[in-house]
Fold this sequence. Notes:
The structure holds three protein chains of three kinds. By secondary structure, chain B is of the alpha/beta class. Chain B has helices spanning 3-16, 31-50, 54-79, 94-101, 117-122, 127-134, 168-181, 200-211, 231-234, 259-276, 303-310, 314-324, 330-353; strands spanning 19-20, 26-27, 109-112, 158-161, 188-193, 216-222, 225-226, 229-230, 250-255, 280-285.
Amino acid sequence: MATKIVMPKLSPTMEEGQLARWLKKEGDSISAGETIAEVDTDKATMEVTANVSGILRKILVHEGESVPLGHAIAIVGEADEDISALLAEVEGKPNGGAQPAKQTESTVESPPTAARSETHVQETARSNGEQTGERIFVSPIAARMAAEAGINLRALKGSGPGGRIIKRDIEAAIQASRQAEPVLPVEAPLPTLERPTAREAATYEDVPITEMRRTIARRLASSLGPVPHFFLTTEIEMDRAMELRRSLNELDPELKISVNDIIVKVAAVALMQHPQVNASFQDKAIRYYKQADIGVAVALDDGLITPVVRAANLKSIGAISREIRELAERARARKLRPEEYTGATFSVSNLGMFGIDEFTAIINPPEAAILAVGAVTAKPVVRDGEIAIRQLMRVTMSCDHRLIDGATGARFLQTFKKILENPLMLLV
Amino acid sequence: MNNKKTSSSRQQADELSTVTTVDGAAEVATTEELRAEHERRKEDQQARIAETDRDLLLHLLYQMVLIRRFEEKAAEAYSLGKIGGFCHLYIGQEAVAVGAISTIRPDDYVIASYREHGHALAKGMSAEEVMAELFGKAGGCSAGKGGSMHLFDASVNFLGGHAIVGGQIPLATGIAFATKYRNEDRVTLCFFGEAAVNQGSFHESMNMAQLWKLPCVYICENNQYGMGTSLARAMSLQDIAKKACAYGMASEFVDGMDVLAVREATMRAVERARRESLPTLLEVRTYRYMGHSMSDPGNYRTRAEIEQYQQRDPIKLLSNNLREKGLLDDAIMNEIEQRVRDEVERAVRFAEESPWPAPEELYTDVYANPLRK
Amino acid sequence: MPVLTMREALNQALREEMRRDESVFLMGEEVGAYEGAYKVSKGLLAEFGPKRVIDTPISELGFAGLGVGAAMVGLRPVIEFMTFNFSILATDQIINSAAKMLYMSGGQFKVPIVFRGPNGSAYQVSSQHSQALESWYAHFPGLKVVMPSTPADAKGLLKSAIRDDDPVIFMEQERLYGTKGEVPEDEDFIIPLGVADIKREGTDVTIVARSLMVPVALRAAEELEKQGISCEVIDPRTIRPLDIDAIVKSVQKTNRIVIAEESHPFCGVGAEISAEVVERAFDYLDAPPRRVSGADAPMPYAKNLESLAIPDVARIVAAVREVTYT
């Protein structure tokens, strides 16, 4: 029987997709599970796989065209089957295949990343399934290991019968990620750092919202919009950080550490000292994350994406640098997987390279804050009654006032500034 | 062997028993026949009374009355929902347990079927613990886990009620085997109904007991119905005592309504077991007044048939004869009834007050050496 | 340590326990003058006499029940079934009497008895003489079920079974009577019931095997080692109480389990182990538990069909490769 292939939901935030490329043409034989097209979503280029086997009878959406989720993009059937009825149905209702609202809602509610906590293995597996509406076959031990190692099952191809993901697939994935992780040339590993857990999404603790907090949240949200922002700006002396960067790059030119890499690291370390900022406002609780997953805004030709450096607080500057570079490259190639650009606990946006001195950024919900970083410039300042030249950088943090108060944010920035001005503190 | 006595009681019972046709419909003897038979039996028992100690006679009477009243009380408690499951009453058959068990020593063994309240009491088990067991209470003789069909008391060598028809017969054979193995002079009495005779366990046990000369007395209480099926409908050769011939075993036919006749025959069998280490099969013709169990409507037999047997009631027979012999009067009878009433009331009170078994008892005594995990 | 056949080890256990305890006696068909249909009781009549080594009529229900009665009053009978196929006639006494006596007497009457004999397939003896009945007996609380696979285990476990105060179903295997192995001479050598034995350590898969299947599983493990798969072979030795902890622990290590058994699959011991493993070690499994059982058909006579009905090395190897995805 002829069937429609519809625009699939390929990312948590996707509402429509642009058909980038057809890999099959009309009349081609396709089988279930085979990739038939590529779609540009709001974030990345994703593959569309067929869920039925048959002959690709009719392409309904051509390359470059955008359609909403659930809209039919092709018809698959037997070679000689009459598909006129189905064609009429599809053409008569341009939005006929729209996804039911329920599914959109469930997507909003589902956790944005593979796993937030190792204790929620099955829940995670389920929500992954919901995201694409397809069941993952995975052995129990493999599911558990994947959750513990923060590996997204959907990104794996199972080698067991029927594509079941089995233990050795996870072991291979862990092995691959270990090899991808750089050796730390400069910073001594933190004693508590366990290599595999550095890949893991942050665990968290939900603390019930107090009445006062609820009132603050309601009032601020109703007066200033869904996420009530406020902004804190500070100026930071970057001389020592610049010196650190220069020294590191001299030691190993391959490192190519940027100022932003250091900022990400410092932000992560400061977040660990200010858990109120490394948090998100949930419906009935404030969620405090137990590691800092830093979203780093990357400008694309036609937009913006924020790949996430997981557990940046546990990683060396070198590792962060390499990871950001690699993520950014894949982001520009639109090859990021959804879990690589969702689920940050805090974001950094740096427009210094564009010569911007100072700006404000918009919070990426449900994160509680975003740090807007301006350019480092030499400026005259007064030090000990004398005029001196210092490398200065202005940062502005946008805060979600529902959970961060002015003083809370200020104290975080204080710490951030102190470490950045004295980067040796990263070593203690 | 006392052949004369055996054949005379055989003849009596044959004459008295209902004539049962092949399809199971019972014909009731005429009133004249019954009256004549009753007189003969009375005389027979009176002769035995003359040879028996008065205290013992009154003790036998007391025990029969105790079992009767105990069971009447149990029936009442059953109807009040205090006793659950199966409850097989012994009323009408008291002379068998009382007469037979009166012949043995405390260290001798008794094992019986699921209709064993009477045997348990006759062997000396406390009425309190038996009633508490029927109530399913922790103070029951089997800690509330056995119920009516599984009364046990190691302290009086009562080895249980067993609820698979004929299941206790090989067990009795094994108990007798053990006493012989240890060169003890203890005897085992094994009680079972006539329906058990059709089971393989009966025949296998008969064979081994005689083959290995085991000191066991097999007492078949022929109450003429295996649940609702009359003997005639279930057994090709209804002379159960004769079945012993197939194994070369001694046997007797006994009138089970006369406690003294049962006592006499059992005494001979017990002596044979104790002195010669030989088994005996006793067929004791008796009758149960009540249904097979409390849930039995009893429509397989007539009211008239039951009444016919009630005229030969073992308690009535003994008490009347004792009165005629001047050994019993109203005062003594009243005293017996009063003592029995007290004992039964004590038993009910004990059962009522005894706690339910603790929930953890569900898993105790599954193993003597429990699982190591 | 002397090397004995399993037959000799069993004989030694009986002899030692009969010497040790006057209340132990052996009863069954052909155990005395004939010295046992499989010669397990060789020489016992001569040593202990007809009082303690008793030939019975062919009367399984009767002598099984007789044993239970004797045990109720303090003897320790060892009842031999010429084969466990004949124990089916005695199940009323084993299940209704032996298994429940302690419980329904409120703890008053224990039944220290051993029912023993060969269980499972023999050599072309067809349907009624080739049954593995362990799941029957293991089903009932009150019974213990023991199945040794080596001469030393046979001796140590039979001695434990005789000394145990509960009814023990002690299942031997005709095909294993000639198996040789080192057996301790120590008269106090016993193996506790309910403790599994790791017959071979490994990392990739747990093979649980009992009785006849233990040597088969060990051969399969050797074969698989050549293919690069490391098998842990566990012999529970006692089916009830089952040492499930040992099995679960092994599965937690290997993540895969194959259960080899001679008996029919349906409602079998393998099914029970499989269920327990899924219940207790679900998160550790990398593949569904896999049973390799005897055919779900009566045992045929024809030699070729008979060997198809009994699990062999090839079937265990195939099952292991299935669960290890190789």
